[in-house]
Structure to design on (250 residues):
């Protein structure tokens, strides 16, 4: 009896939280529509602070920050939205639009066209979506294997074996995509610079030589951390050290 009461209580609490989130999200959207961008930001942030998140929430928050003239904050939340929904073209478009307004123009190192093509395909879905496709492909593999083992005609056995190998390979590829997208969510390896102007150092201390200057809104890759300093890398291959207070991890 106590277990049933506890379960019912948990369900009611969860339902209440989702209902409250829904109301706050609608309230934030209404404030955004009315042009009250700072109030919309505060409302969206209150949802995040309650432990709830979604690609839509981060995207709306990014839009509110963008309209409020807070470019680094907008970029940060667009990036977080893209991690949850890498297939969303609206998020990607707004993020690229925001990046075009940053001060630093960094030319990325050329990527082999097959590598880029592979990455684009992988970003067509999120981790859960690829995991579902992997499961479906594996079920089809088992079904095809059944045709191979139990088929009475040689042709049917050959087709079953070929399809089984194809679906097994497909399931493995989809699982790899899912694992990669999950890793991106768990192991955050990029950050956004929040300081208007910052000197990138040759070593992890203030006395290090100034290598180059970066500005707010620039995205950097986090390689390693030593004390309060991050070793970072840019898209053009440049590396250096930046204090942790100057960046916000995506």
């Amino acid at each position: 009896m106590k277990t049933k009461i506890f379960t019912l209580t948990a369900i009611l609490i969860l339902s209440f939280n989702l209902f409250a989130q829904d109301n706050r999200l609608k309230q934030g959207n209404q404030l955004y529509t009315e042009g009250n961008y700072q109030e919309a930001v505060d409302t969206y942030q209150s949802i995040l602070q309650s432990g709830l998140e979604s690609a839509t929430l981060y995207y709306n928050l990014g839009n509110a920050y963008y309209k409020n003239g807070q470019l680094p904050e907008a970029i940060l939340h667009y990036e977080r939205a893209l991690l949850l929904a890498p297939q969303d073209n609206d998020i990607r478009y707004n993020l690229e639009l925001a990046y075009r307004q940053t001060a630093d123009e960094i030319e990325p190192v050329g990527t082999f066209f097959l590598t880029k093509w592979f990455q684009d395909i992988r970003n067509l879905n999120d981790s859960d979506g690829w995991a579902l496709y992997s499961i479906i492909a594996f079920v089809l593999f088992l079904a095809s294997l059944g045709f191979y083992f139990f088929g009475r005609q040689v042709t049917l056995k050959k087709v079953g074996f070929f399809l089984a190998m194809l679906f097994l390979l497909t399931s493995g590829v989809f699982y790899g995509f899912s694992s990669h997208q999950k890793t991106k969510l768990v192991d955050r390896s990029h950050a956004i610079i929040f300081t208007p102007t910052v000197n990138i150092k040759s070593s992890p201390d203030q006395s290090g030589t100034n290598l180059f200057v970066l500005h707010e809104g620039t995205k950097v890759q986090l390689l390693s951390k030593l004390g309060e300093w991050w070793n970072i890398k840019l898209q053009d291959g440049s590396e250096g050290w930046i204090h942790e207070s100057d960046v916000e991890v995506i």
